[in-house]
Amino acid sequence: MNDCIFCKIIKGEIPCEKVFEDDTTFAFLDRSPVNHGHTLVIHKHHHADIFDTPEHDLADLFRTAKKMSAAVMKATKCDGINIGMNNKPAAGQTVFHAHVHVIPRIAGDGFKLWPQKESTTEQRVKTAAAIKQF
Ligand code: AMP
Ligand code: ZN
């Protein structure tokens, strides 16, 4: 993809703070970290999001995400890690080259990820039936 910023980062056309690279994946620091050490993991193959990414490439991506989780944990001495993947604009995706966020968390940093709703058993039964069709 000629105009993809993450493909350009892989090719070295845009600078980044690379923290890991292997045959299939690449990891670098997010320029706007939630906490210091926030790392993005990408596959060297351009796929827009999780829906477009073949399972074997997802396996590469998450293998590296696991490796980077351990590395970030040790390097930053953080207390936990959130793994995130935004898919499609409604989910907050802004760069359309599939990527996994590895986000260090510090006890008491105060970030609350998601407000949660109440649900009834009836709603859950109906929604589960709809999902199971696919
Ligand atoms: P998302 O909102 O999930 O698509 O995340 C895209 C992430 O890429 C954001 O957290 C940005 O801060 C980060 N980002 C965008 N451009 C760059 C760049 N050139 N170098 C490092 N991180 C970037
Ligand atoms: Zn790309």
Q: What's this model, at a glance?
A:
This protein is of the alpha+beta class. The protein is built from 3 helices and 5 strands. Strands 1-2-3-5-4 form a 5-stranded antiparallel sheet, with helices on one face.
3D architecture notes:
The model has no long low-confidence stretch (mean pLDDT 97). A five-stranded antiparallel beta sheet has the order 1-2-3-5-4, with helices on one face. The two termini are 31 Å apart. Strand 1 (18-21) and strand 2 form a beta hairpin. With 134 residues, it is of the alpha+beta class. The chain contains three helices and five strands. The protein binds adenosine monophosphate (AMP) and zinc ion (ZN).
Rg measurement, Å: 17 Å
Shape: globular
Bound molecules: adenosine monophosphate, zinc ion
Strands in their spatial order, largest beta sheet: 1-2-3-5-4
β-strand number: 5
Which structural class matches the secondary elements? Answer: alpha+beta
Order of helices and strands: HEEEHEEH
Helix content: 25-40%
Q: What proportion of the residues form beta strands (DSSP E)?
A: 15-25%
Distance between the termini: 31 Å
What are the segments in which pLDDT stays under 50 over at least 5 consecutive residues?
none
Number of helices: 3
Determine the mean pLDDT: 97
Largest sheet: 5 strands, antiparallel
Oligomer: single chain
Offer a few descriptive terms.
single chain, alpha+beta, five-stranded antiparallel sheet, globular, binds adenosine monophosphate, binds zinc ion
